[in-house]
Amino acid sequence: MLQVRRLEKIIENRTALSIEELDINAGDIVTVVGQIGSGKSLLMRLLSGVMVPSGGKVLLDGKDVHTSPEVRSRIGVLFEEDLLYDRSSAQGNLELYCRLHNLPASRAGEVLAQLGMSDQAAKRVSKLSPVAQRRLAFGRALIGRPALLLLDQPELRIDLDTQALFLRLIQEAAGAGAAVLITAEDLAWSGRCSAQILELADGRIASKRVRESSQAETAAPERLMPFKIPARKEDRIMLFDPGDVLYATSREGKTYLRTASEEATTNLTLQELETRLAGRGFFKAHRAYLVNLQHIKSVIQFTRNSYTLQLNDQQETMIPLSKQSEKELQELLGY
Predict the structure, then answer these.
(1) Checking DSSP bridges between strand 254-259 and strand 263-266, what pairing results, if any?
(2) Which of 74, 126, 177, 299 lies at a 20 to 30 A Cα distance from 27?
(3) What is the largest CA-CA distance in the chain?
(4) Residue 305 pLDDT more than 90?
(5) With bands split at pLDDT 50, 70 and 90, how would you rate the model's confidence at 211?
(6) Given 193, 210, 227, which residue is the final one in a domain?
(7) pTM for the model
(8) Distances (CA, A) of 24 to 31, 42, 99, 196, 315
(9) At a CB cut-off of 8 Å and minimum separation 6, what does 49 contact?
(10) How many CB atoms lie within 10 A of CB 192?
(11) Closest CA to 51 of 68, 65, 32, 37
């Protein structure tokens, strides 16, 4: 399906990206994981045909993406930026795409329904929430039923419901025969559906691996007498027992508490929560995640420098674990 051969991009006399070989077959879901500046977004721009390489080729079913316009029409892309027309409606954005690619206008309504946004079809994009805008941009990538689906950090600016929706839509696209490539800073979300993991560092593939099912079990410390954590959900003030909290996370300037059954916002910052919960079984797994050790099921190592925590809830939620935090967790739990 997708073949990359000796792909290179030189920027300001520096080799910003160099991929010797990369193959993705129909139905495959592959995640490229790397830190900021590793070249993830640059790779997506080259694979999509938006940017011309300094050398090498990107082939889709044997045709060069950069010299065959008809091939690019078979690629669906979600970039890090949503790139929507703010003054147009949600439906108007998708209908414009349909006209540009000779798709029936009815396809726009179908995609809005898939996204759970039929009731926001006439709403101007500038009035949509950041989560709804991200959904709309994701839908635009799917609208042409692409043979190659490129998703640059799709988990940005989305909530838990949208994470579940995107995961299902990605799996459906792969099931229909699309080759899917996802970029991410960590594998807490995309690692759940990706069979192959590539680690990108300084514009080069540092490691490749197929995800393994073997996982290292972690022990949980003894439950301590908790205090209540105040949080708000709609018009109610909720008081949570820390033992019931799976994790706390910070996104878009707010702190969220997540239990097995619900999510609520708290006025406490993540740092304040960490201080208050010191000695009560919580661990700073990542700059944006505070995890209850009592709910950790396993520690998964995807690549040399990439780790994820799997929780013991029904969804087996995945939480990013930084390399430094993984070392601290080893020392703490002695595994």
Answers:
(1) antiparallel
(2) 299
(3) 65
(4) no
(5) low
(6) 210
(7) 0.73
(8) 11, 18, 29, 10, 28
(9) 58, 65, 66, 71, 72, 75
(10) 20
(11) 65
